[in-house]
Specification:
With 220 residues, this protein is an alpha+beta fold. It is 36% helix and 30% strand. The longest helix has 18 residues.
């Protein structure tokens, strides 16, 4: 069966292993987890961001504008800047969890995600989208982003948001075919996450694509 039609579970696990290998090299935080109650494993990452509610006073601006800052970037701010941030905005740390599982029904990867404040209070999908970069917001009402729902995590049994896999093959087929025409083997997980990740606050460093190209070159 054609590669652009289905992703076999073995290929999924291999792609995840290569993805995690590069993640460990650059300290990006992805890991593979298994459950003693379930034979299936999944790839996951926990990410922290600082959400600031800044009061804006100039005419025509809304009173409560939210800006988002990656945790590591915020920690690198000079102390004076941090003091200004404390006085000008109410900052909250948000914990993001991203889990990548394999769908045996659709034969594609599935992205489960959730976000919460440090006190455990969960963010709604609307609040998560408020943290998405402006350049991606035009996609929110277009497919496949309109297939985001809340479901029980198949391994953990806890509520997560999930990008339903019914449209994954549709938007991944051109990506896979393009790689085939160029006679190069792109990492499916890298290509897929680079498309779906940014819309839910997850961005991949460019080095993932570079690593996939280097892997392909060494195999050739």
């Amino acid at each position: 069966m054609a590669e652009d039609e289905f992703l076999g579970e073995g290929t999924f696990q291999h792609s995840c292993a290569e993805f995690i290998k590069h993640s460990q090299q650059i300290g990006d935080g992805w890991e593979w987890r298994t459950s003693k109650d379930c034979s299936d494993g999944y790839m996951c990452k926990t990410h922290f961001q600082i959400r600031k509610r800044t009061m804006v006073s100039h005419p025509g601006a809304s009173a409560g504008v939210q800006t988002w800052l990656p945790m590591e970037e915020a920690l690198e701010l000079p102390s004076d800047d941090l003091e200004v941030a404390d006085t000008a905005a109410a900052s909250e740390v948000v914990k993001y969890e991203y889990h990548v599982l394999y769908s045996c029904s659709y034969h594609v990867p599935v992205l489960y995600f959730r976000a919460s404040f440090l006190d455990g209070r969960p963010l709604t999908l609307k609040e998560i989208w408020e943290g998405v970069h402006e350049c991606y917001k035009t996609r929110l009402l277009q497919g496949p982003w309109d297939t985001i729902t809340q479901q029980e995590h198949p391994v953990l049994g806890q509520p997560f948001f999930v990008l339903h896999p019914c449209k994954t093959r549709e938007f991944m087929a051109p990506v896979v075919k393009s790689s085939q025409r160029a006679h190069r083997s792109a990492n499916y997980i890298t290509s897929w996450l680079s498309i779906v990740g940014p819309v839910v606050g997850l961005s991949l460093p460019l080095s993932y694509a570079t690593a996939a190209s280097q892997e392909d070159g060494s195999a050739g």
